[in-house]
Fold:
Amino acid sequence: MTAAGTPGHGPLAGVRVVELAGIGPGPFAAMLLADLGADVVRVDRPGGAGIGVDPAHDVTNRNKRSVLVDLKAEDGPSRVLDLAERADILIEGYRPGVAERLGVGPEDCRARNPRLVYGRMTGWGQEGPLAQRAGHDIAYIALTGTLGMIGAADGPPAVPANLLGDYAGGSLYLVVGLLAALHHARATGTGQVVDAAIVDGTAHLSTMIHGMIAAGGWQDRRAANLLDGGCPYYGTYETADGLHMAVGPLEQRFYDRFVDLLGIPELGSAHKDLARWEELRAAVADRFRTRTRDEWTAVFEGSDACVAPVLSLREAPGHPHLAARGTFVEHGGITQPAPAPRFSVTATSVRGGPALPGADTEDVARDWDVPGLTKDGG
Structure:
């Protein structure tokens, strides 16, 4: 086996996953399974997925192996079905009905392997009025109400990159569903289809907020609540050098330490006094503008004031805490987040760099006993 397929790394060692190449949440979900030790074989299409990223730098394909299959060729579907027959999980991210038309839909695959867990990753889901419409993260989270929660009260909603929809509401829910269905399949011998829709997962993320709305503890508008920037001691503030500090001392004892270190102890009584929140916000903003981000970081260092510097993506790996934990690793010259979470017995690691399209065809054909994958295979 190649390094990415080496057994014994992580709690999912021995689990076989077929990933039909796509973009965004599907590949990230497959990466998470690969990080956890699964043998993930990515079925790449001739010409690539079209995301415009050099495959050698696409770290969402780390710890995987790649084979090249043209699903539109006469023998393409049979090659994928041969893999599915030997797999525990298959992941696809096409629009509803496309996999069926290609001959690799759930019924086709599970006819060959009744234990197979078939994961479907979409934005709108497999059914519903919008199921056939194109879309991206921003539209999915817009309809669920979550995008509308984020941002300043006097401006448009702030776009949280594609982290909230694609990856939190999409990839992570797909992985939870796949692992739950895999548990069921191993207990009963019967696989099933997992319909992971970003709209469903992102809506589910807001469960606590919906409960607070029902209880009258959350206003359905931006920057008007405890956790959305409406509270002056839960948000970000600009420093003298144009950078920012993040502030979050929600509890009274942490808030007391915060105002003391910030130099405004006279505002200690404003913690729960909503009538004084604007006064407090202005005072906090004024104080933070008197020093640089690094100077304020030093002031709050070692305290329980719940204050942290807002770091850039390039700065984050160098933070002493993250460096000590190994939160980021370097592999193949690329600094990237390490696998998460961590396990006390079955440790995980970045075992291999991004799988290059088709580079592992012969190894996978041998290891999975699928000779038809190779050009001269039967």
Remarks:
- The longest helix spans residues 163-188.
- The longest strand covers residues 39-44.
